Amino acid sequence: MYERKSIDELETVRYVTYARVSSDKQELESQKSEIASWCKIHHNSRYVSHGDFSEKVSTLKHWSKRKEGLMEIIGLAKARKIDHVVCYSIFRLGRTEKENHEIAEYLKTWGVSMTFVSENCYYGDGSSDGDKLVFSIMSSLARIGRDRKSRRAKRGHKDWRKCNPDKIWGQQPKLRGKTLEMFIELYNARKDISRSWDKRRTPDSDGTTNKYSYREMAEILKINKSTISRYVARLCEAGKIKPRSKTTAKSLDKIKHISEEARLHAMKAEIKPKRSKTIDLWDDEEKEIVTLSREAPMYLEDGTLHPAYADETLGMFGKVTKDLKAEFETMEFKTLFVK
Questions:
Q1: Contact criterion met (CB below 8 Å) for 3 and 125
Q2: pTM surpassing 0.70?
Q3: Taking Cα atoms as reference points, which of 228, 120, 189 lies closest to residue 328?
Q4: Looking at domain 7-144, which CATH architecture does it have?
Q5: Domain residues of the chain, as ranges?
Q6: What is the mean pLDDT of each successive set of 10 residues along the chain, which is 339 residues long?
């Protein structure tokens, strides 16, 4: 692979800066100001800036998928347009030793070195043993910090579930209370076939068809179309509504038509998502591991609606416009239909 000399031996050093935070709730300004102050003190006329890169992305996503900042820097390195990267901290590069070494070594193979402002550490061609040791130690501390944060979150989840058994952990349901009732009314609403695009629909025995499509219901309730599909599956499973098509009914009943052995095999072979539906916690009182569900069921065993779905005053999604129902007939949909 292409290897370049240490930045101390270059006549002109082309560099970029990199800052990262995990979520939109955090700010990048403090990192950017620290990097700018450091560059103003340590850089001379040899250093030429080729851009400032920043991104708001969690390290749960693999570094090769961080396209807004890190992958753009790697693209410049492959094109041999930069020689050096100034990063705020080793913690901001990644959260594991393996991830940090992969990124740093990958840039090094293309002749690009890195400087970390917070730790005053240099990594690349010509880096000292002390810099390599600091890089490894700080990468390990980053992983320990993330593991500690995860343990605190699990412990808080356990305590919260004990104190709030009737509520849902995390984001509150998007359809609940009056909004859920409106959704069921919209789903069950019928109409005569009148519009040109309605003629392509298959009418029922009484000659009517569904009044609102999934997209139209999403526009009315101001939620995503995939959320509509998810709630349709939940309500069909609870027996509150009926599937609109045979395909939907078949997909909902698919698991019922296979053997118990095949079902267990499918559960074992299923790829687990990054955020599992359950969480295992150690119970100090019972001295055993207990499994808790991250999301409460929509309907309880006795058929009643879960309090978190019935209460519309909780969270940001509980706001319902009083005259929204009166606007259904006059609302102009943005959905485009092809004749």
A1: yes
A2: no
A3: 189
A4: 3-Layer(aba) Sandwich (3.40)
A5: 7-144, 178-274+300-327
A6: 61 90 84 90 88 85 80 90 91 85 89 90 86 88 81 73 62 79 89 64 70 88 87 86 82 64 65 58 68 68 76 45 48 44
